[in-house]
Amino acid sequence: EGRDGGQPEFLQAVREVFESIEPVVEAHPEYEKNGVLERLIEPERVIKFRVAWVDDEGRVQVNRGYRVQFNSAIGPYKGGLRFHPTVTESVVKFLGFEQVLKNSLTGLPMGGAKGGSDFDPRGRSDGEVMRFCQAFMTELQRHIGQFTDVPAGDINVGGREIGYLFGQYKRIRNEYSGALSGKGLDYGGSLARTEATGYGLCYYTQAALNTLRNDSFEGKTVVVSGSGNVAIFATEKAQELGAKVVTASDSDGYVYDPEGIRLDVVKDIKLGHRGRIREYADRVPGAEYHEGSKGVWTVPCDIALPCATQNEVDGESAEALVGNGCKVVCEGANMPSTPEAIATYQRAGVLYGPAKAANAGGVAVSGLEMSQNSYRLSWTFEEVDGKLKNIMESIVANSLAAAKEYGHEGDLMLGANAAGFAKVANAMVAQGVC
Ligand code: NDP
């Protein structure tokens, strides 16, 4: 706490993990002897850099860039880049820490990292976004590479940004390699990567529902927050699995559509012209728009899938969800629930799927993109989607097995932390103190 005192998000993520891995550490005295916990929370490398670029008016703009290379015990560093004004060292460190355990849970050989910038792309032209991405990569390129560190997308870093970043990497390094994932299909991307986090979230939820409650999405009312990459494809898969999704939101507010969200309209607004979700209510009769994104948690539902950002569900929102009959919360966003919210889910017996397990589908398919780049071939959509489904089902099974082993049967949070941690810890012990 002394060393990272000004980093509340990072400390929140570490506390949650440390509480649940206590039984694992007790069962493995070699972890303490080898200083595994102390080493686990100290990133191997924190890179902070200036990003200077020229806007459309000819003015020089300066942003701050980050890459936190957290842990490389089980593979090259891997994790997304986020461009958002709320990006700080604490946010990047919490995301990087979570990424270490998440990547381990996928079963693929990937270490953990995260990066980004406080750059706000809202209102910026395409040319400005390109120049920012080029300036960002001009520094980042010296720290990454297919065998070192493979960044991907996150909030406000989608196909367009990855394209500009990849172009600059290739130009400076004079090398065509899979140094980024989430690439376009014409230049080394994987089919099903765009859909992977949202689809994976639903595969995870469906498997957990099936195993723990003998139930499914069929006929359920679902609240989804956000309207970005994760939210859109979570909505698509939940609808395919027979659920009715009744909300979508952005940082301004949310829409409630009692007939079920029309995803063609959301896609047209968000992917078509980067518009605001309030437009939905102007275009779909019977839908309501409400200012304030937090209100989305007051909409009655059976299943909630938070897919926007960290700490978007606080204690009060969790009480509202549970009070209105919500029985399942699975996290598409990273750390969307505050500790108070998690305590409420646990008190109410909610089936709670934590982010590092439930949203691991994105990085899992990024890992599959790396494999395809190495082989220099492309798998079909069905092949990738099938592997994604298997990975998500294994994450549920492995989490439940670990929970049982450590005496907390049915606890998906403890199980995910324990299973993800054990593999990394064993690798760290095997590789000696470094
Ligand atoms: P996008 O940029 O595509 O979408 C983000 C969505 O969340 C937008 O609707 C955005 O609204 C909303 N949002 C962002 N900040 C806030 C806020 N402070 N309050 C309310 N709404 C907000 O990002 P993604 O869909 O990729 O990411 C969403 C979450 O999922 C993040 O937590 C990310 O870390 C996590 N995630 C993403 C993965 C991926 O593969 N993309 C993989 C694993 C996790 P607005 O447009 O108004 O900003």
Task: Walk me through what this model shows.
The protein has two domains: 170 residues, Leucine Dehydrogenase, chain A, domain 1 (Rossmann fold, 3-Layer(aba) Sandwich), CATH 3.40.50.10860; 160 residues, Rossmann fold (3-Layer(aba) Sandwich). The protein is built from 16 helices and 13 strands. It has a five-stranded mixed beta sheet with strand order 1-2-4-3-5, sandwiched between helices. The longest helix has 25 residues. 52% of the residues are buried. The site of NADPH dihydro-nicotinamide-adenine-dinucleotide phosphate (NDP) has 25 residues, from helix 8. This is Glutamate dehydrogenase. One of its GO terms (molecular function) is glutamate dehydrogenase (NADP+) activity. Homohexamer. Keywords: NAD, Nucleotide-binding, Oxidoreductase.
